[in-house]
Design brief:
This protein is of the alpha+beta class. The chain has helices at about 5-10, 25-45, 55-80, 85-105, 110-120, 120-125, 130-145, 150-180, 200-210, 220-230, 235-245, 260-275, 280-285, 295-325, 335-350, 355-360, 365-380, 465-480, 500-510, 515-520, 530-540, 545-565, 575-585, 600-605, 615-630, 635-650, 655-665, 670-675, and strands at about 185, 215-220, 380-385, 395-400, 405-415, 425-430, 435, 440, 445-450. It has four domains: about 5-150, Glutathione S-transferase Yfyf (Class Pi), Chain A, domain 2 (Up-down Bundle); about 180-245, no CATH class; about 260-350 and about 545-610, Orthogonal Bundle (Neurolysin, domain 3); about 365-490 and about 500-540 and about 615-675, Neurolysin, domain 3 (Orthogonal Bundle). Helices cover about 55% and strands about 5% of the residues. Strand 7 (about 435) and strand 8 form a beta hairpin.
């Protein structure tokens, strides 16, 4: 088979990437070539004697950076979904060069001056409001990158950026390695799997057979871990997996895999960065480009939510502990008992189990219903097409408008496997923009970690899986249904980080609508839709332990914000800060050996440092936005069009507050969120 160079794909910004024939040996030289192109372009802008304009400066650099980002995204994506030693080495080899380039660009006074010249010129007055906003944010970006620092401080900032990117990559690698390295093998006649559903046992058996071993193989990937914690009657088995899962990438792991020193160093580097830029702490730096005005505002917001949620959480916890003791005979319930007890309690209170619900959520039915919903709301159509892929389970889809014209495309990679990072995410490969008079269509990745199909039956999704799928598809729609033609505000680009979760969390609400449930369910054996009786039980249980789930998210968000706000390693350790946050807002207190922070990828290997609060912040927006659909009708095409026009299509072209106001007619209110969780006084 003919091999394709990454450079060709990146320079042409391919709609369909030749994943099955990419030459991995071309990755490193291609990226180095693309880095050189960006640098030469920037230098030609700096040396240009003519007055800087949008086209000869911003657009010119955008074109070169887009090719580099396109190539780097392919490598980063493959590193996330199909990790290999060669790919990992390539990423680590290239990170310093990528980091050095962006430090050089961001700190370049001459380039910064060119952007300011455009901003202060007559041309700026002729630019659209969108382009004026882009210029303002890019100038702010130069400042945050250190363009106004002296030479010595710039060098220090460059070192910080380079080391930070390498540490974040190492954090991810350690976590993935520790997840992959664990395996528990059980004999065929074991009693330890009593209580675990037959389908999960078949999965464990299938995993053992793949290694030509008898019995069962259990891993720490979520499709293995969660069913054990939820259903295994064997307390010792639950504790074994809990200990392994909660101590990943810690001092309990093999040498060189402990993330604790990485966390300490990252926090030190972030504090240095803030000081160099003249801020009191990294939280202030993080919020410059977000909706929230200050760390104090965020901390106040989280503590106010906690005050509403904690009484309900304490009530939830008491009920759970009493049930575990009185009904299950667990005298001293521990962290590894809580998920198991919760599932039994829900079965008792609402007369249904996750397992029963799962039989109705067959993957083909869920996708068919999800596509039908967005097709109806946004007047689009989604069709599957053939395309080269990185794994046989991956699919490729095209979105068309009402006239049958392609407007976007996306890949789905749904199942957990070795070499694939845990969690779920949407990643943008290509953005919508105007290129030489033609519209370039956006391309996205939709990645999850569901249980793969067992035998000849379709994959079955839990209710939580379905919510996750709708959530990530919401991100995808935000990226793909944009109408912007400037790279910096197309799709999710330019959207404040604490508003980027709005379209994703908004989509989750549809999962709890009867008409939608009818369209996304088909029993794995009978093909029948979910009965109303079972749906009513799900709705009755929707806020089951809502207090506990809320304070858990608040715990993570408050820990993250305080860690980047006033954390002082001379005063206390990271674990001591987390313990203090738990004392304030939590109701679940894990064992001393739990090392949650060591796997908190969102803030140490993702973009959520001093930004994890975004989930709760955007949840207020999404609950309030969805309440308009509840008022006017779930499938109301007029409201759907308004959501598309004012939020999805707008991308980052204006502040998120303005987009929300344009859709809702007012600012967001917290009432809808509290009501959705049953936390209002009424």
């Amino acid at each position: 088979m003919e091999k394709f160079s990454l450079l060709d794909s990146a320079k042409h910004i391919d709609r369909k990437i030749p994943f099955d024939a990419l030459d991995f040996d071309s990755f490193k030289p291609s990226i180095l070539e693309l880095i050189k192109d960006v640098r030469e372009c920037a230098e030609s802008i700096i040396n240009n004697k003519h007055y800087p304009t949008w086209s000869n400066t911003v657009e010119c650099l955008d074109n070169k950076e887009e090719s580099l980002n396109f190539g780097w995204t392919i490598i980063s994506h493959l590193n996330s979904v199909a990790d290999t030693p060669q790919l990992r080495q390539t990423v680590n080899d290239l990170l310093p060069a990528i980091s050095e380039l962006y430090s050089w660009l961001g700190q370049n006074e001459s380039l910064y001056k060119k952007y300011k010249e455009i901003k202060n010129s007559e041309e700026d007055k002729k630019l659209s409001k969108i382009r004026q906003r882009i210029l303002d944010r890019q100038i702010q970006g130069f400042v945050l990158s250190g363009a106004e620092l002296n030479e010595e401080d710039k060098k220090e900032m460059t070192k910080i950026n380079e080391e930070s990117s390498q540490l974040s990559q190492k954090f991810s690698e350690n976590l993935l390695d520790c997840t992959n390295d664990f395996a528990l093998y059980l004999p065929e006649d074991t009693k330890e799997l009593d209580g675990i559903p037959e389908q999960e046992k078949q999965l464990f058996s299938q995993q053992a057979k793949a290694e030509e071993k008898p019995g069962y193989k259990i891993t720490l990937h979520l499709p293995n871990y969660l069913p054990v914690m939820q259903y295994a009657a064997d307390r010792h088995l639950r504790e074994t997996l809990y200990h392994a899962y909660s101590t990943r990438a810690s001092e309990f792991s093999p040498a060189g895999k402990d993330n604790a020193p990485i966390i300490d160093r990252l926090l030190e580097l972030r504090a240095k960065e803030a000081a160099l830029l003249g801020y009191k702490n990294y939280a202030e730096v993080s919020l410059v480009m977000k909706m929230a005005d200050s760390p104090e505002e965020v901390i106040g917001f989280l503590r106010e939510l906690a005050s509403k949620a904690k009484p309900a959480a304490e009530k939830d916890m008491k009920e759970l502990l009493d049930f575990a003791k009185d009904e299950l005979g667990i005298e001293d319930p521990q962290a590894w008992d809580l998920t198991f007890a919760s599932e039994r309690l829900r079965e008792k209170k609402y007369s249904y189990s996750d397992l029963e619900v799962k039989q109705y959520f067959t993957e083909p039915a869920v996708f068919k219903g999800l596509f039908a919903l967005v097709e109806k709301l946004f007047n689009i159509s989604i069709v599957e097409e053939k395309a080269p892929v990185w794994n046989p389970a991956v699919k490729y889809f095209v979105i068309k408008n009402s006239e049958g014209k392609e407007i976007a495309s996306f890949y789905t990679d749904l199942y957990a496997r070795e070499g694939k990072r845990g969690g779920a995410w949407m990643n943008d490969q290509r953005s919508r923009r105007l290129v030489d008079g033609s519209i370039q269509t956006p391309v996205a990745y939709l990645v999850c970690n569901f249980s793969a199909p067992v035998g000849n039956k379709p994959a079955l999704l839990t209710l939580n899986d379905v919510e996750t799928l709708f959530h990530e598809f919401g991100h995808g729609l935000h990226h793909m249904l944009t109408r912007q033609t400037d790279l910096a505000v197309s799709g999710i680009s330019g959207v404040e980080w604490d508003a980027v979760e709005l379209p994703s969390q908004f989509m989750e609400n549809f999962v709890y609508n009867w008409d939608v449930i009818q369209s996304i369910t088909s029993h794995v054996e009978t093909g029948k839709k979910m009965p109303k009786e079972l749906f009513d039980k799900i709705i009755a249980a929707k806020n089951f332990q809502a207090g506990m789930s809320n304070v858990r998210q608040i715990e993570f968000a408050l820990f993250d914000m305080l860690l980047h706000y006033d954390y002082d390693p001379k005063r206390l350790t990271v674990r001591q800060l987390l313990d203090a946050v738990r004392k304030e807002v939590a109701v679940v207190f894990p064992p001393e050996y739990n090392r949650f922070a060591n796997s908190f990828s969102h803030i140490f290997a993702g973009g959520y440092a001093a930004g994890y609060y975004s989930y709760k912040w955007a949840e207020v927006l999404s609950a309030d936005a969805f309440s308009l659909f509840e008022e006017k009708g779930i499938f109301n095409s007029e409201v759907g069009k308004k959501w598309l026009d004012e939020v999805l299509a707008a991308g980052g072209s204006r502040p998120a507050k303005e987009s929300f106001r344009a859709f809702r007619g007012r600012d967001a209110k917290v009432d809808a969120l509290l009501k959705s969780y049953g936390l209002t006084e009424e």
